[in-house]
Amino acid sequence: NPIIVDEEISKLMVTVRDVTKLKALEHEAANQKRELDIVGQLIKISSKKFIDFENSAERFIAENRSIIEANEHKNADALAKLFRNMHTIKGNSRTYGFIYLADIVHDVENSYSELQKNDDMQWDQAVLLVELERVSKGLKEYSTVYRDVLGRGESGGSVSSADGLVLDQKTIDSVQASLELIQQDYPDVSGSKALNLIRQVFDNAGVSTLESVLEDILGSIPSMAKELGKPNPEIEINADNVRIKNEANDLVTSIFSHLLRNSLDHGIESPEERIKSGKREPGKIELFTKVSDEKLDIHVKDDGQGINLERLFQKGVETGYWQETDKPSNEEVAQLIFSSGVSTKEQVSNISGRGVGMDAVKQFLQENAGNISLNLLSKENANCKFMPFETIITLPKHFFVTR
Question: What is the pTM (predicted TM-score) of this model?
């Protein structure tokens, strides 16, 4: 502080203060605020959903650790797998509002992206494992708050039916086995209405409607829309004819975490563009189901601009799928969307744009005897830039029951 005499600085007074305790208190306060934020994020979801999320994230982290340890040099397929797993953890984290974990995962994604784009960047196992440990510690932070601060434990292994019945899975299996024995030992009662009613109740235990499985993802859509500067879209689900088995919840959640995010970010235009095209400002996303050949098809489409075939064709040229002079069909161009690292977005956002989502969905489904396909809905104009389409998710019989 200057000491002024006769309008001149005659001396300077310097004050020295030890702020060690103050900084420690500030750090402690910041940690307490972070912990309170995490508590607020966790209390919004059920114990079962957090356990499922935790198990899924741990599985992806363990798989990434194995991939890194098994590869001493840069490997395109290994990188693609690392990216898919990390992108899915981020998507699920955003679904449940776990913002601190999502931010950590986003940083690691950036590192993977640099490895993919920069040929001179070396594959360093030690660095990659340190980055992965950051994600593991971020997950552990949420797990610690969940168990030690909130005092919650494991889900107990109980499952609920679409009609609200809650039963232990072992009990359900035991009753179903007993019903099978009754039908074998007493064929005459197979047509009994009472017996069929009991079978129906236990067949419906451990299953949920598609809408309830997607409840958390649907709940995260408004915040994503706000982040993208778009109105909250209308989402219509017509799937009353099926119930999803609880064992498929994790798969379905991971899949639609990617698909709905892509529809919102890639497909549905900005409000200004929609008004110019004569559309309502809020977009619309439709989901409906069909059952055939003991498989469930879930159709997903939006009323956005459609898939950018022109941009996809250029991506194909850039990545060597074809030459500039080649003339692949619209269907062939559209299938490129399932290739790793291919995206029609010019800029990467926290929500999408890395070319990982559709590739991840395809891999997850194929690993579980399912599939994904893309159906172009307007094939008259072979030279149009944008083409409306629908995505069809196919699940095998053991993942659903029909009403």
Answer: 0.72
